[in-house]
Amino acid sequence: VLTDRLRTADDDNPKGYYEYERVKALDKGDHAWLPQAQGKAVKVISALLMHLPPTYTYRVIFMQRNLDEVLASQRKMLAHRGEANTAASDDEVAPLFAKHVQATKSWLVAQPNMTLLEIDYNALVADPRPAAQAIQRFLPSGLDIEQMVQAVDPTLYRNRSVPS
Known about the structure:
The chain is mainly α. Helix content is 39%, strand content 9%. It contains 6 helices and 2 strands. It starts with 33 loop residues before the first helix and ends in a 13-residue tail after the last helix.
C-alpha cells in the first residue's frame, strides 16, 4: 500500500488510514508520484479516478457500499471534526451520488487501460473470504487470503443501514 501516514488514527477510523495525500491533487495534474505507486495499492476516491493519466494501466477495486451508510458515515465524521454540515440533505445528495457512482463505473469499464473489480463492502464485512479470493484472482501478486480475511474487523462497521 502506498501511504504517507500523514492522517493518523482517530475516532472515525481507530486503525488509521491508508492514504497518500498527493492523490488529492490528481485533478490539478499532480502525476509525478505515480512511478512510485507502480505495483502498489493506492486509495483513490471515485471523483478522482478520471484524472489518472492514460499512460499507465490500472487495476481498480471499486468498493460499493450502501449509500445511506456512506452518508451517515460522512455526517458522523464531520461532527467529530466539529465541522458544520452545511451540505444538502441526504434526500438531495443520494440521487446525485448514485448517478455519480454509475457514471464512474461506466467510464471505468470503457477505459482500455483499466480493469475493474467491484466488491460489495457490506458482503465483505459479513463474509470476507469470497472478496479476498476475488481480489487474489484479480491482482497479479500472490496475496495471502487468510491474512486478508483476518484484517476485516466487523466491530469497525458502525454505520449500518437499518432497513425500514
